[in-house]
Amino acid sequence: MEQERTAITVYCASSPRLEPIFHKAAEALGREIALSGARLVYGGGRSGLMGRVADSVLEAGGAVTGVIPRFMYERGWGHDGLQRLDIVDSMHTRKEAMMRMAKGVVALPGGIGTFEELLEAITWRELRLFDGNIAIYNVDGYFDPLISMLESAVERGFMRTDRRNLYRVVSTAREAVEYALGVEPTAL
User: Fold this and answer.
1) Of 69, 121, 127, 172, which is most buried by a Cβ count within 10 Å?
2) Between β-strands 7-11 and 168-170, what pairing exists: parallel, antiparallel or unpaired?
3) What is the pTM of this model?
4) How far is CA 17 from the centre of its chain?
5) Cα angle vertex 30, ends 24, 121, to 5°?
């Protein structure tokens, strides 16, 4: 797959049963991505925050690439209104493809899959396998417990102090997009 280094990879929930504040944040993020001229790269789903961020980019005239494992596509979970939907063989291939296309990453609220993807992106950044910026879009304090856990890891010696620079916690969609598209990532 070609590298689209002006793309922002977004991780987020696929559940449609979420409070309106989260849907509004996904819509705002989608608009900001489209306005920036970046392409959205995401998990290819049609429901939940995944569907809202993709639809918002499309409604604002932006470009979207979905990356979905074949088993999810075969279950009918894919978004059929995208300019591009890459169907891959596994979750691992999906994550790698999404990272390879990304200039930067934004994590919206989500469940276990979002946590796993976000922490893998942070790990890739630490290992210098990914050199883009990672924004944690902390809508309504959703990520506070995770941020607290990461801080605890630093305070208790499991992570070096400079590892706080592997990601940035942001509170607005514009800040998330601007950070993800930053020319130079924060130095380690």
Assistant:
1) 121
2) unpaired
3) 0.92
4) 19
5) 105
Taking alpha carbons only, the member of 102, 100, 74 closest to residue 87 is 74
Which distant-in-sequence residues (6+ apart) come within 8 Å of 123 by Cβ?
none
Interacting residues of 29 by C-beta distance below 8 A, sequence separation 6+: 10, 53, 56, 106, 108, 137, 173, 176, 177
Q: pLDDT, tens digit, for every residue of 39-86?
A: 999 999 999 999 999 999 999 999 999 999 999 999 999 999 999 999
Q: What is the DSSP letter of 163?
A: G
How far does CA 138 lie from the centroid of its chain?
Answer: 12
Edge-to-edge strands of the sheet including 7-11? 84-88, 64-69, 39-42, 7-11, 102-107, 133-137, 168-170
